[in-house]
Write a structure and sequence with these properties.
Elements lengths: L1 E5 L10 H10 L4 E5 H5 L9 H5 L7 E3 L8 H17 L4 E4 L11 H20 L3 E5 L9 H11 L4 E6 H6 L4 H8 L3 E6 L1 E2 L10 H4 L9 E2 L9 H8 L5 E4 L6 H27 L1
Parallel strand pairs: 1-2, 1-10, 2-3, 3-4, 4-5, 5-6, 6-7, 7-10
Antiparallel strand pairs: 8-9
Helix pairs in contact: 4-5
Organism: Paramesorhizobium deserti
InterPro entries: IolE/XylAMocC-like (IPR050312), Xyl_isomerase-like_sf (IPR036237), Xyl_isomerase-like_TIM-brl (IPR013022)
Pfam family, one: AP_endonuc_2
């Protein structure tokens, strides 16, 4: 597993990307998932790119954004092309978005068809730029349940469409993460890892709360302290070396939480691999 941190973690911090990159490299991360807002605001810094990031021993596997799928086609095409251009500057082959702003139970058939068509158009543009569009499993979108996510993949029917598997949100949607993982695995290209104290606290991840500087953070927990038991799920991930995952932390005490979660992931993987090494010896 290639582990990244997300620059959205530091959305309310006065830190440079250089500060974040130096810290990430020193604390066992292999990559930086770059919030597209941050990438856009650094466009004037012409020396900040994939080569610069590689100087820290890091890569940028994905830019995370919010494509305007509800807007007119011209706006969507421009936004997708611009996002893929930014991704190319950072050497990222993946761009993340949400599948609209309406849950699968609430959207009309006509609106669903329109959004799927818009998403297919974004995929066509991304493919021409060498990018893949990753739809995140997320409440309040067309990827809020396994059934709806599978249906969306069929509706879009494009090879440049993939999934950013947010494990907690899959669990939030009522699906078993392991079963959903097996079902979606051919399309999964990235993972988001986070946890919560209890189901009653899931509201802390609503976008309006997350993005607010004075938003509530109570209920956000380190990866191994929450209601979702990650041990069995991580066993499935540790079977593969070619996956990208990000620790998505929105709470306080960022550096300590991220460092401890990354360390615990390394220790857990080493523990899982120990019997294999012992058997080989």
């Amino acid at each position: 597993m290639r582990l990244s941190l997300c620059t959205i973690t530091f959305r309310h911090h006065l830190l440079s990307l250089e500060d974040i990159a130096r810290w990430a490299a020193a604390n066992g991360f292999q990559g930086i998932e770059l919030w597209a807002v941050h990438a856009r605001n650094m466009q004037h810094l012409t020396d900040r790119d994939a080569a610069w990031m590689a100087g820290f021993g890091l890569s940028v596997p994905m830019l995370s954004d919010y494509l305007p799928l509800d807007d007119d086609l011209a706006t969507l095409r421009h936004a997708t092309a611009d996002l893929c251009r930014l991704a190319g500057r950072w050497g990222a082959k993946k761009v993340r978005t949400f599948a609209g702003k309406t849950g699968s139970r609430d959207i009309s058939p006509e609106a669903r068809w329109r959004l799927s068509a818009r998403l297919k158009e974004a995929c066509r543009i991304a493919e021409d730029s060498g990018c893949t569009v990753l739809v995140e499993t997320h409440p309040g979108t067309l990827a809020d349940t396994l059934a709806s996510t599978q249906r969306l993949i069929e509706e879009v029917d494009h090879p440049a469409l993939a999934i950013n598997f947010d494990t907690l949100h899959v669990w939030e949607g009522g699906d078993d993460p392991l079963s959903a993982h097996r079902a979606l695995l051919p399309r999964i290209r990235h993972y988001h890892l986070k946890n919560v104290r209890s189901r009653a606290d899931l509201g802390v991840f609503e976008p309006a709360n997350v993005y607010a500087a004075a938003g509530k953070r109570t209920g956000m927990t380190p990866l191994f302290d929450g209601a979702l038991d990650y041990l069995e799920f991580l066993d499935a991930l540790f079977e593969r070396d070619d996956i990208d995952a990000s620790l998505e932390w929105f709470g306080g005490d960022c550096f300590n939480v991220l460092a401890n979660d990354a360390r615990n992931l390394r220790l857990l993987r080493a523990d899982r691999e120990a019997p294999i090494r012992a058997g080989a010896a």
